[in-house]
Amino acid sequence: MATLQLRPAQKEILKYKNGRMAVSAVPGSGKTFTLSLLAAEIIASNRINVEQGQQVLIVTYLNAGVETFRARIRRRLDELEQSLMGFDVRTLHSLSLEIVRAASSGQSDPESEPVVADERQTANFLSTAIDGWIEMHPDIWYAFLPEDSPQMRARWRSISEKTAKAFIRTAKNNRYRPTDIQSKLKQFGRNQDFDNQLDYSDEVNVPFMDMLNGIYGRYQNILTRQGALDFDDLIWQAADLLENRPDLVDTLQERWPYVLEDEAQDSVPLQEILLTALTGPDGNWVRVGDPNQAITSTFTAAHPRFFNSFIDRPDVVSRPLPNSGRCAPLIIGAANRLVHWVCDSHPVEEVRENTFRRQDILPTPPGDAQPNPPDSLSKIRIKVYKHREDEELPAIAQLAVRYAQERPEDTLAILVPTNDTGHALAEYLDGLNANYDNLLRGGSREREIAAAIYALLAVLAGPLDTRALTAAHAALYNLGHPAAYFQPNQEPDPDGQPPPELTRLHAILRSVKNPESLLFPDSEERFLNTLPNGVATERDIFQIELYVSFLRRIFDLRALPVDDLTLALADELFTTAPADRPPDQELATHEADLAIAYLIANLMRQWHDLQPEWRLPELAEQLANVAEGRSPLPFAGPADFGYEPEPGRITLTTQHSAKGLEWDAVFLVGIDGRWIPGSLEAPFIGVHDFLGGDPTAEAAAQLNHLMQGSSGLFSGRTATESTHIEVISERLRLLYVGITRARRYLHLSRSRATRRYNKEQESEPATVMAVLYQYLQERKA
Question: Residues 356, 734: contact at Cβ < 8 Å?
Fold first, then answer.
C-alpha cells in the first residue's frame, strides 16, 4: 500500500469513521487534497459496498472542481491498488437534477425531465417580466423617481433589475412563492401614498414590495410557460422531494452513505436544506471550507454563518486544518494580525463579531514536504501615492514589469479591486509591452475566443454551409493561425478593413458548389471543380488547400464529448504558432486563452447535461450568444477553469478572482477607505441617495420582515446599515485572501485621490493599512 507524508492535522481528519465532521481549513492547507484522501480512505477501508453500487458523494462548487476531485481520488485509489469505483462527484446543480430524476425513476419518460434555463435565458425572462410590469403599472413605477428624465429612467430601470434579482433570490432560498408574499402584503393594506418617494423608515414599504413581487410573479409565469426551472427552482424542488419522500431519502442514502462537501463557506440556504435532508439526523456528512475566505455573500445567497453554525454544533466533530506551506512566516503573520485586529479592535462591533473566525494560519512542521519560504527571502512593502490613475497605476505596472524581468523564475500577479481599475492598469501594461495574462471579466478576449471556437463548431455541425466555412476561415485569420496564413500584397488598411485578396478568397468559399467534395475530395480534379470557374488563382488554391487540410484534421474530433471536443479545438487554436512568427521561434502555450477555453468547455458540458437531447448544432448556437456578447460567461475565477500562472509572466485579475491561486509575488492595488470603509458613515458603492439607501438590501430585509416578522438584521441596524456591515466584512476577507496569495513578496498600495466619472475625489486611508504598517514596524524592531 502506498504511503503518504501527512501532517498531524491531516492524519486526524483521516481517522474519521462516521457521523458529522467540520474541517475549517486555512489558505494553502490542502483542503481539496485532504478531502480527496478521505474519500479514497472511506472506499479502501470497505465502509461502503462498491459491488452493490454504493458511492461516496462529493459535492463541490463548479465543474472544474468536479474534474479535480475525480482525478485526485482516482490517483489515490490507484496508489492503494483499489478499483477506480465507489465515488460520485457533483456540483449542487447536477446533484439536484439527479435527485429530481431519481424521484421520477420508473414513473415518467426521460422527455418529462425538468428543463433548466441557463443564466442567459433567466436574465432575458427577468428583463421581460420587468418590462411587462412597467407597461401595466407605469404610474407606480415612475412614482419612485424624484425626477423624470431619460437618465433617471435608465438608472431606475437598471436598479429595478438588480433589486428584483435580489428579491427573487431571497424569496426562493426561503421558499416563498409569489402567492404567499401577496397574501402577506394584503395584511399590510394598499393605502400608502405613491406620491412620496420610498420611505425606508417603514419596516415594510408596501408599494416597493408589491412591485418586486409583481415582477417575481411574472418571471415565474414565464418560466412556467416555457416549461422550465431556474437553478434555484431546481434546488428547491430537490429539497422538497427529500423532505416529503422518505422512500427517496432511503434510496439515496443507500446509494450515497457518505456525503463530503467542499467550499462549505459558500453554502446557500437551499443547499443547507437539501444536504441536511439528504444526510438525515444520523447521516455521515463531512463539510470542509474556510469561513475566512467567504467572499461572495454580498452578491449571492451564500453566507459563512451557515458553515460557522455547523462547526459550533454539539453533534459535530471539529477538526481544523491549520498548517500552510504556501507563504513565508512574515506574510502569515500579516494575515494573522489582520484577523486578530478585526476580531479584537475593529471600530464597528458587528464587524468584530461577524467577519472572521478566530483561527491562526500555522507554518508547516519541520521536515514537511512543503516547507514555508524563508523570511530571509521575503518582503512586504506598503506604498502611498498621491493619485491612483496618474501615479499609482503606472507605478505598479512599472514595478511589476521590472520584477518579472529581474526574477523570471517567479510567478507574480497584480490584484485589483474592480474590473474598471484593472482595465485602466492594463493600458499601462500594454504601453510597457508587458508579458501578461489579462484575466479580467468583461474584456473582449472572452468573446474573441468564444467566437473562434463557435466558428469551428459551426463547421463541424454543418459542413455543407458555405457561410460557416467562410466564417471559420475569417476567425482563423483574425487569430493569425497558420491554417489561414495570408500575406496580402499591400499594406494593411488603416481602418481595419480586410485586404481585397482576402475578400475575394472568402467570396470563393461562399461560392463553393459541393462543399463535401471540397472537404473530402477523391481527386485533385474533383477538388478544383468545386471552385467557381476561372476565379481562383494559384495563390487562392494554395490558401484553400491549407485551410481545408486543417478542417479535415479537426473533423476527426467530432466523436468526442462536447467538452473534450471544445478543448481539443482550443488546443488547435492556441498552441500553434501564428503564421507571422519566425519558424525557429517556439511558441509557449497561450495559458490565459486555454483557461478561458476550459471555462467554455465546462459551460458546453453543463448545457448538454441539462439538455441531453441537444446535439452539436444546438450547443453551438448557445455559444453564439456568448460570442456575440448577448450572454456572458458565468462568473468564475481563473482557478475554477484550470488557470496556472506562468513564471516571468504577470497575471492581472481581481481580488475576487484570485481565490484558489497563488504567486511568488503579489501587488495589491487600491487598498483605500473607499474599497474597505472603516465605518458605517463612509461612502459606499451601491447606495442611491434618491432611494434612501441600498435598494437590494431593503428588498431582502423587508421581504424577510414581511414573511417572518423579523428582518434577520443586526440588532438596531437598518437594512442599509446591515448591508454595509456585510460589505466591510467581505472586503476585509478579500484583503485576507489577497495577502495569502503571496508566497514571498507582498506589495500593498493606495492613493490619496482618485478620479471617478471624470471627477476628482479624495480617498481616505483604510484603517487596516495602518494596522499592517504597525505590524511591519514591530517586525523590524
Answer: no
